[in-house]
């Protein structure tokens, strides 16, 4: 069979990375990245993928779009944003080893796995890149690495050196730890229904089981031979047959599709997605689901929901400083804040965490579970009228000022929706909360109204107060 020609005129990297079927090797890519001990530690301590898997995946896709398909200015902004994010990811793993996301060797591995995933996609589909194409692709890839300030000496010198580099890293550096096992065997089995399922949401438990089993089998089958040799993971014939059928079948199918369907991002830098449909808006999905209170005082149920759905960003049932940093990271992402505003917001939330931990961490282990949080919050609220003023309120004032992007001293409806919803949540769900906060009906929310809403959310004993609708309908 003759080689199918790729669309022109565009770089080879964009042509390969822009194809929809790159998603077939995305989980394999995540496994190889997360198996690096430093990445695993950073993921365990800072990532929100357990509690918010789809949001985390969308952020990763958005970042890739800016790095590989946007213009020079957007790439520079994204590069600077990633640098600021990585600066804060550091610590000591469970084995006592220090780690940092700024380590050039770690950053190089993360990037090389992306290049290797592109070549693997072509190889697994029976259409491997030629030596000349590999050299071209790697040269374009190294340009992106240079823009990210990854030292050239941390990368394999040439495309021909990449396979040996990957093989050596798998055999000598990677570890088959808890985070990797979670990605392979548990993440999809626990993931909530994606918002885009719409009317198919009731079928999600069944779809999830099938998708999890299929994706696990495909990913394990597609991992490099060095992985199977080192960690002894089985590669059954049925999984190998699945891999052969899926990759080759998708290759044949996608060559028959029009570019707007074949490509998520067209090689010229545009998107391959269909234009947005006009007409009836999508059904809104509640941002925060509050359990029906069993007593006259609705605060315990509201506090528990806030802990599980807002505070516990890493989804491990406990909250620590990393969870609040993850909250700030998500806000900074939504608002695309400059560095100086990011620093102010991080400092304010860190102060909130110190106040929260001082009155909440009953067993002194540096973390707060749900029961500790609810008990301590109720005790603090009932005992000290200024309890929120000492921690939460300063953080919320900083949050308001960050969201007030035009410096008007008020939040308009769009600014409010950007802060709490973002572009992936339909605005209609948050309109109710905005109207409740806009007490004087002037179409905007002042800082005092904003702070009062958060105060109501934590202190109101019934759900009739305006602030209880802060994040959508209860």
What are the key terms here?
474 residues; mainly alpha; Recoverin, domain 1; 2 domains; two-stranded antiparallel sheet; two-stranded antiparallel ribbon; 21 helices; disordered N terminus
Description:
The protein has 474 residues and is mainly α. It folds into two domains: 12-262, no CATH class; 299-469, Recoverin, domain 1, CATH 1.10.238.10. 58% of the residues lie in helices and 3% in strands. The protein contains 21 helices and six strands. It has helices at 12-17, 26-34, 37-46, 53-68, 72-87, 104-124, 131-147, 162-172, 178-190, 204-222, 225-231, 237-254, 259-262, 299-311, 321-335, 339-360, 370-383, 392-403, 413-420, 428-437, 447-459, and strands at 90-92, 98-100, 318-319, 368-369, 410-411, 445-446. A two-stranded antiparallel sheet has the order 1-2. A two-stranded antiparallel ribbon has the order 3-4. It has a two-stranded antiparallel sheet with strand order 5-6. Helix 2 packs antiparallel against helix 6 (104-124). It is globular. Pfam families: EF-hand_7 (PF13499), MPAB_Lcp_cat (PF09995). Residues 298-334, 425-460 form the EF-hand domain. One of its GO terms (molecular function) is calcium ion binding. Residues 265-284 are annotated as: Disordered.
Strand and helix layout:
Blueprint: H1 12-17, H2 26-34, H3 37-46, H4 53-68, H5 72-87, E1 90-92, E2 98-100, H6 104-124, H7 131-147, H8 162-172, H9 178-190, H10 204-222, H11 225-231, H12 237-254, H13 259-262, H14 299-311, E3 318-319, H15 321-335, H16 339-360, E4 368-369, H17 370-383, H18 392-403, E5 410-411, H19 413-420, H20 428-437, E6 445-446, H21 447-459
Antiparallel strand pairs: 1-2, 3-4, 5-6
Helix pairs in contact: 2-6, 2-9, 4-5, 6-7, 6-8, 9-10, 10-12, 14-17, 15-16, 16-18, 18-21
């Amino acid at each position: 069979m003759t080689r199918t020609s790729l669309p022109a005129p565009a770089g080879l990297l964009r042509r390969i990375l822009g194809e929809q079927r790159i998603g077939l090797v995305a989980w394999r890519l995540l496994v190889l990245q997360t198996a690096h001990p430093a990445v695993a530690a950073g993921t365990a301590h800072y990532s929100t993928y357990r509690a918010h898997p789809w949001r985390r995946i969308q952020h990763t896709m958005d970042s890739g779009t800016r790095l590989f398909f946007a213009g020079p200015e957007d790439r520079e902004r994204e590069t600077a944003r990633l640098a600021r994010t990585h600066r804060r990811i550091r610590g000591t793993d469970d084995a006592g080893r220090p780690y940092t996301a700024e380590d050039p060797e770690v950053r190089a591995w993360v990037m090389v796995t992306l290049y290797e995933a592109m070549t693997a996609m072509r190889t697994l589909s029976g259409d491997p890149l030629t030596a000349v194409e590999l050299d071209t692709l790697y040269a374009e890839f190294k340009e992106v690495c240079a823009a990210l300030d990854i030292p050239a000496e941390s990368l394999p010198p040439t495309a021909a050196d990449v396979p040996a580099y990957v093989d050596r890293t798998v055999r000598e550096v990677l570890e088959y730890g808890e985070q990797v096992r979670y990605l392979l065997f548990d993440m999809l089995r626990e993931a909530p229904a994606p918002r885009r399922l719409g009317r198919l949401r009731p079928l999600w438990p069944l779809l999830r089981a099938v998708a999890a089993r299929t994706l696990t089998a495909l990913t394990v089958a597609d991992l490099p031979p060095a992985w199977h040799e080192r960690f002894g993971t089985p590669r059954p014939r049925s999984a190998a047959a699945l891999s052969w059928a899926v990759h080759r079948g998708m290759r044949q199918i996608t060559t028959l599709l029009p570019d707007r369907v074949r490509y998520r991002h067209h090689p010229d830098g545009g998107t391959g997605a269909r234009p947005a449909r006009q007409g009836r808006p999508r059904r809104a999905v509640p941002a925060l689901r509050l359990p029906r209170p069993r007593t006259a005082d609705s605060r315990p149920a509201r506090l528990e929901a806030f802990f599980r759905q807002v505070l516990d960003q890493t989804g491990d049932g406990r909250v620590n400083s990393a969870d609040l940093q993850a909250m700030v990271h998500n806000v900074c992402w939504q608002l695309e804040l400059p560095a100086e505003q990011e620093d102010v917001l991080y400092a304010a939330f860190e102060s909130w965490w110190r106040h929260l931990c001082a009155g909440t961490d009953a067993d002194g282990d540096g973390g707060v579970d749900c029961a500790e949080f609810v008990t301590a919050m109720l005790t603090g609220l009932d005992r000290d009228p200024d309890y929120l003023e000492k921690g939460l309120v300063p953080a919320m004032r900083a949050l308001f000022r960050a969201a007030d992007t035009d410096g008007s001293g008020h939040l308009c409806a769009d600014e409010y929706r950007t802060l709490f919803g973002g572009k992936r949540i339909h605005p209609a769900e948050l309109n109710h909360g905005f109207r409740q906060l806009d007490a004087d009906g002037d179409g905007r929310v002042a800082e005092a109204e904003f702070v009062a809403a958060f105060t109501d959310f934590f202190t109101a004993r019934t759900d009739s107060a305006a602030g209880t609708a802060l994040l959508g309908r209860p």
